[in-house]
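ingest -> validate -> predict -> emit
validate: passed (alphabet ok, no gaps, 324 aa)
predict: started
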Amino acid sequence: MRRTLILAVAMALAVPAGALAATPATLPAGSTIAHVDVSGLDQAGAKAKLQAALAPVWERPVTVQVGAQNQQVTSADLGQTVDYDGMVADAFKAAAHHQAVRVRLSRSIAGDKLSKEVAALAKPFYKAPRDAKVRFGVTKVVRIHGRFGRGLDTHHLRQALIDELRKPTAARLVSASVDRIAPKVTVKKLARIYSTYISVDRASFRLRLFKRLRLVKTYPIAVGMAGLDTPQGLRHVLDKQVNPTWHVPNSPWAGSLAGQTIPPGPNDPLKARLLDLGDGIGIHGTAEDWSIGTRASHGCIRMHVSDVIDLYPRVPVGTPVLIH
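emit:
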């Protein structure tokens, strides 16, 4: 009997103190949640009283004013959640442990949901800016002005909504402004972006060099013969070579040289310098000075050796080349 009694006492002492605390059916006198008196209420009653007291303050819709336009947005759509169940649970937990029930307001704002709603509010007011651009021509480059866009200051609007959710005002009103959005590329920047440009005029056998969108030099050239015409279109300088090696294309006109590699020397028609435009087309020097001013090449653009040496250092890789 004595041993049984000792064992029972030992088992009782081994049970955690929290397990002995029974959850009360109602909250004791003086209990508050978010400064709302919930004394004597059960869980359902406490939650109902909380919602009745807090919702008109914290969950009222927010009016977003943009100029003369107003739009109401619910606090839930702005990502705010008031944790009524959690606050009530904390109150009854404190009561079960015979602690004073003083539960603070518990709420949260989901940033991703708020950002999504701000984007939706801003969408009707957005007009994209247009960057300035150029239109390449044979004898000149036309500069086309950009255009300002417009849009809400979303950073300011987002912060204003957060402030309103955190500290509700009587007006529950947030104002947003529509601001001008400048283009990233302005006319002034075009000359720096397109610092070098080349046009090839097949009809007049002229290559024109533009610097900062202004014509600075014109060179005489030869272009592709009939049937092997220099192709039209906008290309770019892909590579540059001094005393280039000729990689002979596998074309019928190349005859027995097709597919061969011809090193610099008397048998190499690519003299002094090469600006590679891709697809076997390039700007290079020639030993056949008589051909300049005619349709004589197999598609490339020929220049006097002295001219191509002069041109070469002025033209960086990436330079646009319009063949017309």
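Confidence is low (pLDDT under 50) at residues 4-15.
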